[in-house]
């Protein structure tokens, strides 16, 4: 197999070009969001949030069919209900936020699975959960472009607020920052990106595109801005290689992107010169 | 003219309630410019609430606070805040310079970039605290005292003349406590107004000239030696070992260790 067959030829197919473009767009926004998720210790909350989108998407499908816009808003509403609901529960009862999130998302996910079993068409639940790059429509691409551009713009404008709120929320608040607003804005962006990534990555695997490059970058960088940029770079790398792998090996696209990013993560965790496992053990467990 | 004339913090019948809980009751006091004042009291006596109210972050239920002749929210550029460091993630990808630069963020707003004058302010702050050499280091690569100095430098870089510190001595080793006491002494000598929540009366007696002793209400204020008279301490700390507030116990143990 020539290099051309390996790297270029796959993209003579329309669906491959669309899949690649969609994954690349979401790599930019996902790479950014992932850094904040990791640094704010919200990685598992992101996972819960992604599962909670399912009933919204299924309900939108039942009511409006396959319209991308309807699916988008269905997922968005379900995600925001989960985020807001658990925030309220944790303030108005003795339940802590992680338990509130854990309880709500599993109920939402259950409702989603129940709803999908009632869907009339030959809809495949697996496509929702794990993605199908074959199905990326022009509308999906526009959606990915809008969400990715919007996320990048928010990070550019509010960079300093995001950094302060992530690093030292008390100082941010004390200097007049709107911590609650930044937090809710951030949850909204996460839901938007999860929904936009649904077609290529699936809602369950989409988080991999956000988290894995960020954790990888976290192990290499000592500055916030370099972590953001490296995270985007790793996400792009993993997406391109993952899409090619899925084509040549006949794997599901979301899964193969996550596997490639997983390899990047594993290499970082083992061999990062300052924060890797090998170095840690080499120096007898001292940092 | 000397702008420090306005550097006076005034509280008139300031009261803060969270729901049915009164955190601060009817506090009237004034803090002279250029003084270093320790806010003392047991856990839950309202030390942090008082700091937050002065910052304009915690709205008052009733009463009034003025910074000079301005409302706290309008006086924010004059105030610099050093939060407790317990919640800081020392593995965060940020250097010492990155932390100190944050002091400039509030005055930059959303769209202005760091100008040369901002960079100079950062350099001066690093220099004043003697951590210019450490500027490129990631923050875990510092001792406890150096970490504290990085956060003090951030406050200096904010460019205010009133400094509010929340438990600055918590979690510091003996050497770092001496170092911080020395720095705060210098600040006072330079005419900076320092207002710090302090848990330990012994440290307060050594490092501050004035004191404010709280027990949700005001127990005493004035020169530190008078404020920390045995009678006042007895009144302010009498409920220290009471079990009415279960959360007070572990926190008290942690502070004692610090």
Give the CATH class of chain B.
Alpha Beta
- Per CATH, the class of chain A reads Mainly Alpha
Largest sheet of chain B: 6 strands, mixed
Which parts of chain B are unreliable, with pLDDT below 50 for 5 consecutive residues or more? 242-258
Number of strand segments of chain B = 9
CATH superfamily of chain A: ABC transporter involved in vitamin B12 uptake, BtuC
In CATH, the homologous superfamily of chain B goes by the name: P-loop containing nucleotide triphosphate hydrolases
Attribute tags:
heterodimer, A: mainly alpha, 16 helices, 0% strand, B: alpha/beta, Rossmann fold, 6-stranded mixed β-sheet, 3-stranded antiparallel β-sheet, disordered C terminus
Written description of the protein model:
The complex is a heterodimer of chains A (287) and B (258). Chain A is mostly helical. In chain A, 78% of the residues lie in helices and 0% in strands. Chain A contains 16 helices and no strands. Chain A has helices at 3-8, 14-39, 43-51, 54-64, 68-92, 97-116, 125-130, 138-157, 159-167, 169-174, 179-196, 198-201, 206-218, 224-249, 253-271, 277-282. The mean pLDDT of chain A is 89. Chain B is α/β, with parallel strands linked by helices and 258 residues long. Chain B is 35% helix and 23% strand. Chain B has a single domain, classed as 3-Layer(aba) Sandwich (Rossmann fold). Chain B starts with 8 loop residues before the first strand and ends with a helix. Chain B has helices at 47-55, 96-101, 105-108, 116-128, 144-157, 174-189, 201-207, 224-227, 230-237, 248-257; strands spanning 9-18, 21-31, 36-40, 62-67, 79-82, 162-166, 193-197, 210-215, 217-223. Chain B has a 6-stranded mixed beta sheet with strand order 5-6-7-3-8-9, with helices on both faces. In chain B, β1 (9-18) and β2 form a beta hairpin. Classes of the chains: A mainly alpha (287), B alpha/beta (258). The interface between A and B is medium-sized, with 26 and 28 residues.
């Amino acid at each position: 197999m020539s290099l051309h067959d390996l790297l270029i030829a796959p993209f003579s197919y329309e669906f491959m070009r669309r899949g690649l473009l969609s994954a690349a767009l979401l790599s930019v926004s996902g790479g950014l969001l992932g850094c904040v998720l990791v640094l704010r210790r919200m990685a598992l909350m992101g996972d819960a949030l992604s599962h909670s989108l399912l009933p919204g998407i299924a309900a939108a499908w039942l009511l409006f069919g396959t319209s991308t816009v309807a699916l988008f808003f269905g997922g968005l509403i379900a995600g925001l209900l989960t985020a807001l609901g658990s925030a309220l529960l944790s303030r108005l009862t003795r339940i802590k936020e992680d338990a509130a999130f854990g309880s709500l998302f599993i109920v939402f996910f259950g409702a989603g699975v129940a709803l999908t079993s009632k869907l009339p068409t030959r809809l495949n639940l697996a496509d929702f959960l794990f993605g199908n790059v074959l199905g990326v429509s022009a509308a999906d691409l526009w959606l990915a472009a809008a969400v990715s551009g919007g996320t990048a713009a928010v990070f550019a404008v509010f960079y300093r607020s995001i950094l302060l709120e992530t690093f030292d929320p008390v100082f941010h608040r004390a200097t007049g920052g709107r911590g609650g607003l930044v937090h809710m804005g951030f949850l909204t962006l996460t839901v938007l990106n999860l929904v936009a990534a649904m077609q290529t990555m699936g809602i369950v695997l989409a988080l991999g595109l956000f988290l894995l490059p960020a954790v990888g970058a976290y192990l290499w960088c000592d500055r916030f801005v370099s972590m953001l940029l490296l995270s985007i770079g790793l996400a792009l790398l993993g997406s391109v290689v993952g899409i090619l792998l899925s084509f040549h090996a006949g794997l599901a696209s979301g899964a193969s992107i996550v596997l490639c990013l997983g390899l990047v993560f594993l290499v970082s965790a083992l061999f990062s010169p300052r924060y890797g496992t090998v170095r840690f053990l080499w120096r007898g467990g001292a940092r | 003219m000397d702008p420090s004339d306005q550097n006076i913090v005034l509280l008139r019948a300031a009261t803060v309630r969270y729901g049915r809980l009164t955190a601060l009751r009817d506090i009237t006091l004034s803090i002279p410019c250029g003084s270093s004042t320790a806010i003392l009291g047991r856990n839950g006596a309202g030390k942090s609430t008082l700091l937050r109210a002065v910052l304009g972050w915690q709205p008052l239920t009733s009463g009034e606070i003025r910074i000079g002749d301005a409302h706290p929210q309008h006086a924010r550029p004059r105030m610099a805040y050093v939060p407790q460091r317990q919640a800081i993630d020392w593995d965060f990808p940020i250097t010492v310079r990155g932390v100190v630069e944050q002091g400039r963020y509030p005055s930059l707003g959303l769209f202005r970039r760091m100008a040369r004058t901002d960079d100079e302010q950062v350099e001066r702050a690093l220099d004043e605290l003697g951590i210019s050499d450490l500027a490129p280091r990631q923050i875990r690569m510092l001792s406890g005292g150096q970490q504290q100095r990085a956060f003090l430098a951030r406050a200096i870089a904010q460019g205010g003349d009133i400094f509010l510190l929340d438990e600055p001595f918590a979690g510091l080793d003996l050497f770092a406590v001496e170092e911080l006491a020395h720095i705060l002494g210098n600040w006072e000598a330079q005419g900076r107004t320092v207002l710090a929540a302090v848990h330990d009366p012994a440290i307060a007696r050594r490092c501050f000239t004035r004191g404010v002793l709280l027990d949700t209400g005001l127990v005493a204020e004035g020169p530190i030696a008078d404020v920390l008279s045995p009678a006042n301490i007895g009144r302010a700390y009498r409920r220290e070992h009471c079990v009415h507030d279960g959360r007070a116990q572990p926190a008290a143990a942690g502070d004692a260790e610090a």
